[in-house]
Amino acid sequence: MSEPLPLSAITAPHLPKGRSLFEPHRLFLMAVFAVIVFCAIWFLRWDWIPRYQDRLIAGIGQSLLMLATTTAIGFLFAVPLGLVQVTGPWPLAWLAKGFCTIIRGTPLLLQLWLLYYGLGSVFAQFPEIRSSFLWPYLRQAWPYGFTALMISFAAYEGEVMRGAFAGVPKGELEAGRAFGMGRFTLFRRIWLPRAINRALPTLTGETVLQLKSTPLVATITVIDVYAVISKVRQDTYLTYEPLLLLALIYLCLTGILIAAFRLLENRVPTRGA
Amino acid sequence: MAASSATMFDLSLLALDAPGWGGVLLKGFVASLELAVGGYCLGLLLGIGGACGKLYGGPILRDLMEVYTTLIRAVPELVLILLLYYAGTDAVNQLLALFGVGPVDINGLVAGIFVIGVVQGAYSTEVLRGAIKAVPPGQIEAARAYGMSPMLVMRRVTLPAMLPYAIPGLSNLWLIATKDTALLAVVGFSELTLVTRQAAGSTKAYMMFYMAAGVLYLALTLVSNVAIGIIERRSRRGMARPV
To answer: Do B87 and A240 touch (CB under 8 A)?
Structure first.
């Protein structure tokens, strides 16, 4: 029995499948693009790059380190945040929901400055904290940047995990219970893996968003790649060239990140939904 | 010690009149709102144009739109805001110089709206493209069969029919727009976050002012959420409820 062809397939003009890179208009566009790139290289000043090369690479490393640590630890916080909203007792669920709403409802830049300037100034007032072993760390900027980014990722991803936990089919959990699994085994073997599986596609987008949030930590004096570029701009009085390079760097990082996640997603077996 | 924690939450600093900073904060809040509304509307216009270009345009236009949305969505907003803010004002002045008019000081609000709008445009292009594709093609064909011109089809059928599909994405974009306005603090535009920083810096009551600004942003988000809920329910009238 053959499926009747949907009407749209007959009438609506469909995009040609597998449009190749070498259609005439593409070649034309690529030529225009090449001319623009050539002009940018020829007419703009790039002689500062070798001088700042090492610092740029260190800055990229700092940005990536921020990204990796905040997403990893933020995700660990996101799992309980999502779980208690689905199954927890109401005070916990209410707390988690409030936390997610507050963090998602205010700009990250404001949270960052609240932690760094606000909390930082409060810490400085207590002699107990000033004399504690933590003070050498609390005097630096990166713990505040790390905390703000981590909290933000946890809140956004917690909302995703809430949906993922709620979306695991009831039958699978009941099947697990029928096998005599305890609550923890059930969670470890079925609920969590299935929820992560469902959340994986959105994880790519969330991680790219997190990468795009990392330059904000430069506003509280963490030396990431954005801060290095700002330094270049101050030193050389160039407006566009450093920013264009920065945009190019982030473009490459985003591309690499998306490619890496696609590889990861292909390795995780999925069937149907 | 006790005195310093008393000044930390000295609410009289939030008074609306001169010694207090409440009025300044509210002015900043209004500036943020203007930015968000202006940028969002510009983004919506760009998005409608971009979505039509992607769906109905020629091959070159389609590829250019693809480049626009990909570039904007891959580069951090902070970098884009710096680039567009300087490049945009610079380009206008160069254009004016070409016509023999001296350089003008470009209004920060206009530049900010332009920046937020260009960034939002890329995202709303994708949202609207998806929504337009979700409109049953039979409705558009019926409109064509009545002899409507493409513009009329767009205005009377495609745009209204795609709204229910677009509203979740568009409301998300509105919330993002309100929060993206904070990034303009970095280029020195006095919106809520920057005036908060100034107020906090000059009174040393950092905690209180940042929290006050956070409450304002949160209130905006919560009020928006209520409004979005109402709009969503209205736009879904007459559609089958999701089971």
So the answer is: yes
Cβ A247–B83 below 8 Å, yes or no? yes
Q: In this predicted model, what pLDDT tens digit does every residue of B101-132 receive, in sequence order?
A: 777 777 888 888 999 999 999 999 999 999 99
Q: Which of A50, A67, A64 is nearest to A232 (CA)?
A: A50
When the candidates are 1.20.1440.230, 1.10.3720.10, 1.20.1250.20, 1.10.10.10, the CATH number that belongs to B34-191 is 1.10.3720.10
pTM of the full structure: 0.86
Q: Which residues of B touch A118 (CB under 8 A)?
A: 200, 206-207, 210-211
Question: Considering only residues 92 to 131 of chain A, which have any Cβ-Cβ distance to chain B shorter than 8 Å?
Answer: 101-102, 104-111, 113-114, 117-122, 125
State the pLDDT at residue B1. Answer: 42
Assess whether pLDDT exceeds 50 at residue A166.
Answer: yes
- Convert the pLDDT of each residue in B197-237 to its tens digit: 999 888 888 888 999 999 999 999 999 999 999 998 888 87
- The answer to whether A108 and A215 are in contact (CB under 8 A) is no
CA atoms lying within 13 Å on the CB side of residue B176: 20
Q: Span A49-54, mean pLDDT?
A: 91
Are A22 and A184 a contacting pair, CB within 8 Å? no
